[in-house]
């Protein structure tokens, strides 16, 4: 296939000040300009830094001195003085008899070598901060600093199974970075919450609620968070009964951060960058048991987000396109997205505006597979599961379910 370098291409580039997209035209870069993955990774979080090696003390042996004999020292001094005079005289004679040295040739100024400023995949969080997504940037920094951890398939991602065929280790659960109050500041999250609340009494939700509470039916009441000893993973597994999606499926992640903006004038916000598409979950927070009527009465529920920060692709599909990035901007190349939809990878080229040697002139395509390649290269980078804290809500009308 002939090279596409130099061909014109249209794209949309972030206008960070105006928080909007700007239509642009650039050129496809030559093949030797590519995203870098060579920068050394950050220290692995949670792993103590190696202590510097202690310097070995080297004992310097005492200098041997000649026996202090005044006569011997005097003789040696006279010999050294005579040798110095002889050498000086010889040097002067040699200088007088030597022809003058030729003048040095004029120095040529070295020609400056022009290079393309490198863009490393670890520069993406910095660009995220510049476009107004600090929470998403912090989460990506955490991913780079994580121990190696990833699910080989989407099914493994859903079940929290990593490359070793075992559940994610405890360090791969983040329960502090994202707060439910912050999530609910965004209108679409509040809309998702309203939808979730409207689904609490559907037959499916009631059946799930009864199944979760049935093992405890001989008690007077139950407070699941205390029952689970504040373990959010167990709490989610044992007492979650309903969910509501916000912006699609869990697998989209940063693709949603980019593609949402094709249909909106403004840049995507930090919620999309941090969580992409995600689910709101409802779990039983407090209930009491009516033994006479063999039922449970749910009086409180807890609402929270669980989400996977991952870069998993589906087998047989092109790797998800996450946009074209520079140190200060992100861009969308529609032709690239179209090619990815039909599993064509021939548009995996950077695009440039003006001189490629200028700062931020080149925008580099980034895909899920680039993060996986970075993991293989550095044996580091950890997919993790995000849990927000919980918003506990008292129901206006308690929900009664048969046990």
Structure, explained:
- The protein has one domain (8-31, 120-402).
- The protein has helices at 70-97, 124-130, 134-144, 154-159, 180-183, 187-198, 203-213, 224-227, 232-239, 254-259, 270-275, 334-341, 368-378; strands spanning 8-15, 20-28, 173-174, 221-222, 240-246, 278-290, 295-309, 321-325, 330-332, 351-352, 362-367, 384-387, 391-402.
- The longest helix is centred in the first third of the chain and has 28 residues, at 70-97.
- The chain has 403 residues and is an alpha+beta fold.
- Helix 2 packs antiparallel against helix 3.
- The strands form two sheets. Strands 3, 4, 5, 6, 7, 12 and 13 form a seven-stranded mixed β-sheet that branches.
TL;DR?
With 403 residues, the protein is of the alpha+beta class. Helices cover 30% and strands 22% of the residues.
Considering the chains and any ligands shown, give keywords for the structure.
alpha+beta, six-stranded antiparallel beta barrel, 13 strands, 30% helix
What are the SSEs and their pairings?
Blueprint (H helix, E strand, L loop, with lengths): L7 E8 L4 E9 L41 H28 L26 H7 L3 H11 L9 H6 L13 E2 L5 H4 L3 H12 L4 H11 L7 E2 L1 H4 L4 H8 E7 L7 H6 L10 H6 L2 E13 L4 E15 L11 E5 L4 E3 L1 H8 L9 E2 L9 E6 H11 L5 E4 L3 E12 L1
Helix pairs in contact: 2-3
